[in-house]
Amino acid sequence: MTTAVPAEEERTRRAGPREQVVAAVGLLDRPLTSYYLVLSCSVMLLALGLTMVLSASSVKQLQETGSAYTLFQKQAVWMVIGLPLMWMASRLPVRTFRALAYPLLLLSIVALAMVLVPGLGRSAGGATRWIDLGPVQIQPSEPAKLALVLWGADLLARKERLGQLTEWRPLLVPLLPGAGVLVLLVMLGNDLGTTLVLLTIFLALLWVVGAPGRLFVGIAGLVCLLVSILIIVEPYRMQRLTGFLDPAGNRLTSNYQGTQGLFAVASGGLFGTGLGEGRAKWDYLPHAETDFIFAIVGEEFGLVGTLVVLGLFGLLAYAGLRIARRVKDPFTRLAAAGATAWLVVQAIVNIGAVIGVLPITGIPLPLVSYGGSALIPTLIALGMLLAFAKREPGARQALSARGPGPVVRALSWLGLARR
Question: Do 198 and 363 contact (CB within 8 A), yes or no?
Answer without folding.
Answer: no
